[in-house]
Amino acid sequence: MATITNPCSIGHIAFIMDGNGRWAKKRLMPREYGHVEGAKNFKKLVRHCGDVRGIKCITVYAFSTENWKRPKTEVSALMKLFRQYMKDAKESFIKDDFHLVFIGNRDVFDEDIRREMDEIERISAGCSRTLCVAVNYGGRAEVVDAVNKLIASGKTSVTEEDITSNIYSGIVPPPDVIVRTGGEVRLSNFLMWQSAYSELFFTDTLWPDFSTEELDRIIDAYGKRDRRFGGV
Ligand code: IPE
Ligand code: IPE
Ligand code: MG
Question: What is the model's pTM?
Fold first, then answer.
């Protein structure tokens, strides 16, 4: 593993990787091309977060529960890329010391994809960093699933701690920072429960163009924010 050259105080950073389609359109290319370039940038940024900035936990929004509304061709291109992500996970992320965790509802995926997700989570479990990939993820569905799990276990009322420990990402701390690229200023159903006290950053840069230098500027700006958590 590379030596961490420029550590920062962020424990968990999350990315809403938005703008792939517009990036491709600007180049008169199909949207799918933007997703391929976006996936390459994702790998570069994960490595930067881990090896250069020493961030222990990264979450990325790869596919939302609402993204099924897209044209069939785009959805299948995204699923193809997801299979590729999983191959990459085995070949490089585990070597880079990342425990892969998938959050989202897995029921809709083909049996082979689900088996692969379980296998990757299992074989990477000993790694010291965490890379959480949100696929078929929706923040509202996550809270509803958690509550239903608690009801099924016999609970008749629930606490915040119950929900926190029953959401998909139960083992992951809430994100300190959420970065959204692509210019929209919204969370689009991402980490609804966990984002209560996250520091939010929005940039117009489209995801495939989002550079390690811009990320470093965001990390610097995070260092200057005053996180009060309701105190003074
Ligand atoms: C984000 O990029 C990737 C996914 C939602 C899968 P978009 O595909 O939403 O790109 P834009 O926002 O249309 O440019
Ligand atoms: C959010 O982007 C989902 C992902 C990045 C995976 P969208 O492009 O789906 O969000 P909206 O539709 O602009 O809110
Ligand atoms: Mg978008």
Answer: 0.97
